[in-house]
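Collaboration report, partner site 2.

Our partner group contributed sequences for two proteins of shared interest, and the home lab folded both. The records are reproduced in the order in which they were received, starting with the first partner submission.
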Amino acid sequence: MIEENLPDGYWVEAFQVDNKNSVGLVAYGLSSGDIYLYENVSTIKASGKRTLIQKLDGPVAMDQADITGNGMNDIIICFQYGNTMLDTDPEGGKIVWLENPGQNIDKKQWKMHYVGKSTAMHRLKVGHFTQTKRWEIIGLPIVGKPYDLLSPVPVILFRQPDNIYDATEWPHEIINQQFFHLIHDAKQFNDNQLDNLLIASSEGINWLYFNQNLRQWTIKHIGDGEQEQKQQTTYYGSGGIDMGRVGNDSFAYMPAVEPFHGNVISVYTKNENNSSEQAPRKRYVLDIYGNPNENGEGPAHHLVCADFDKDGDDEFLVALRGPSPNQGVYFYKPIDISRGLFAKWKVSDDSAARIAVADFDNDGFLDFATISYNVPGYYTAENPSINIFYNRFAQQMLPDKNEIQVLKQNNDLLFKVPRPNKALQYQELPFITMNGVVFSLAIVPPHSSRQVDNNTYIKVMDGIIMWTDSSKGSHQRVTQSRQLLSEPRTVVTLEIHSENQRIRTGNEGALLMIFKTPGNINDAQKIDDMKKVIIDNSLPESYPEDTRQLDFQFIRYDKLDSSAHFKDLEFYNMKGFRIDFIDNDEHICYIQLWAAGQGVNAGVHNHEKNTFCEVHVCIINGSGKGGMHYLNSSKEVYNPLTTPDSAFEQLVLPTFYEHGPLWDIDAQNKPVLRNDSTVVYPWHKWQAGINTSFNESFDIWVVFEFNSQLAILSASNQSTLPLPNESKQTFIPNMLNTFIAILIVYIHY
């Protein structure tokens, strides 16, 4: 949820200030008139970050364009509407453009520049409708004059003047004054030369465009819209329209809300006898949501087409303002448009006046945002709010191009990964599964997010992740962060208690190791025999065959090291995984797994020959007492014959916990290195605990051996940050289960 308890709600639109900033939102209601810019919740680090752009009397519709030509998007908006479409303000219907202040965007309101007016101005579109050198605005009033719903509506073209700053009004002309009645919405698109409009009005769906050959405006009729309610409600025709692409056909189908503020969702498909884009189309009714109310209105208010699952075909979303049960957002997917066959499911229960579509979390998949419908005289939803719904298709599909490359290097897997701050898309790559626990490497691009749940545990290997903590049980919402290293000589959990079940990244992006358990870790079975540990190679089929055939098994360590200390010891090792950056082969870390039976000393050492910095993550703590034991100082001498166990500090690592640095750290928070670049450590070991309740119960842990040049301790680790208003919402169900629960909508004529 971005914001709740709004005074009203009507319009929401995705808005990018310039090509350097992430996509945010502009939202407002008709009554309060406060127009706010909301920054992208993936990037902000302050609570409730919104900026008042301007305050207008009854703002209705907006569009956006770089009017000034300075690379920053401005806003074009109409206002002073009146109370209702019947009781409109005869002096209103004004259009202004709001000048983007650039660097001072959060310090002052946007300057207004007058364009023109027409009573009851309800929708407007900015583009190039007759030429391509200057901006043009088409204004679409909903009615022609106050207290008159029957008169035709003028369609007006405003042309950009020579001087946009000093002009008292934009030159304008009436395109058409006789054809249209009760215009509720329009869809703008480009025919590869000029911008065109599909207009939803009492006449149904009509295509309005400027014919360059004839040098005149042309109207092509697409469909009549809803006609059966004409006697009952006096409303007929259409109230909302968009275009859906299927394959290479961008005009494959046109979904519509019908009639004005209607309850009918229909779709127009090409006629078999005439498949041209401008020909009349065959109409199918997909759904009827309830009955018209006492004002003759239904719950549907807006719809929008987009390719949400990246299969090359557009789906569409329908916004229902309410009341319940006809409230929320429905998702429609084409199955067979020649028969008007679509699948649908509900993806939100919140009142929706309009839908804004954008990739808000930068994962390569489109998300959507809604604002509740709260307009006195029509319908007022309870607790008006703004919500973002994140697309989960990204976690069900393989990416178009693998960000992570995998090679077989001897008997190891070599992963080559992009630097997270340069990653273009999210990718999560499972590579092994151990007794149901899936180990995955993940790249999360900057200003992105991904879903987490109670069975997800995350080790950060580069970058930073953030989330709103839901575990404190207090009313104060706190944002947590996690990065490569935690506080020295402490332990922290890899759990994520996220209020909206998502983590997000900032400018750095993140490289993650993700552990996904099949259930609650408290229910996990103890390992009393290493033969019961089952490890599968989980690399997808899209990766090289030799990498997928590589076998991983624990080997008892006395077969690898003949030292007397390890002879007949229940101590095991499994190699191995190397991770490098793909741009210059810079080494990040090497990963291997270890296992030890109860009471096993895994070997005291101080890395006198090692150049890496290691962090241990416990996968199973068999006794509940195992962990890292270390001497307090690297200057303390260790003698295996005389140094007692009591000299060691004990750092117990519960299941899915990691520890902070044990190595020495200098004033710059870097590892202290010897002259030969080895890392200065105190003597330390993994010491398995003893629990007499079990005859045997193994500890299993992962060791991350990081490049010492990258193992720099941050000034703040596992820190608390200011809180952004995050969305609690996600959408798009698991596609594997979609057709189990799906409703196939058979269409009637």
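Second partner submission, folded after the first:
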Amino acid sequence: MPRAKKSTGAAASKSPADILSTLQILQESHELSIIRLSEPITASDPAAIPAGNQPRTSDVSNSSLNAPTPASLEADLTHYRELFAKLRFSYVEQVTKEKFIRAIVGDPPLIVSPQENVELENLNAEAKAVLKALKIEVADTVKELERRGAELARRYEGVKLETARLEELPDKIKGLEERVAELRKENEGRLNSETPELNLPLARTVDLVNQKKRQREELDRQLEQLKSQVPRKKKELERLQAELAPLETKRTNSTAAAKEAKRRKEAALGGVEDDLEERGRWYRAAETSLKQMLEI
């Protein structure tokens, strides 16, 4: 276990350039291509065989040898399956004919009893059952291999994509480092600026940002509360305006009456009799007398 930790730490300490070079070495030593995969099929070089001794192949095989592709390999596989099926049928037919002829012309001739036929049929049925089970097992194995092959192909494509991204990382890292250096140079002239927040370290800057965020959230909450009170305040304002309208009218009338009374009073002081003022005095005197009489 300590060795594994040590190797993990060593891998983590590697730079992107070292990792990229390691991947390139692995890809060069384990190159995967459709040509490499088709080499076991085309192991015999046609150029090394004399022209007169070259075996005749089908058109499908010739086309696949020139430029092997997944589609051509699939066509080759189907073609060879058909050929082997025909070959098996021909072999079984020839062997059956040969045995039948030998049984007839043999000395003495081979005579098979019905009991032997029954035993052979039973053995044949058992062999067919075993063969069917083996075929099913082979089919399942082929499906599993195809699934694993497709999965490995997807993983390989993912590795290629990540490798391409990794190749771009050194340039991006270099550009970012240069940008950081430029920003540091630009920031050196701002260290003595009038804004102290610009000179804070990262931790305090983060705390300040969080504090401003909390203040903004509090203001947003208060704003939402005020927005919810707006309809009620509008209704209250409309009610107050409705109540204020008669008062405004009354105030206007009272102001006009006061001005008129003041004008009449000034006119009375100037020698003109003011009936309204005298009437008011008489009313007040009468009111006082009535209150005294009624003891109110």
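Feedback sent to the partner group on the second submission included the following. The chain is about 80% helix and 0% strand. The first helix runs from residue 2 to 12.
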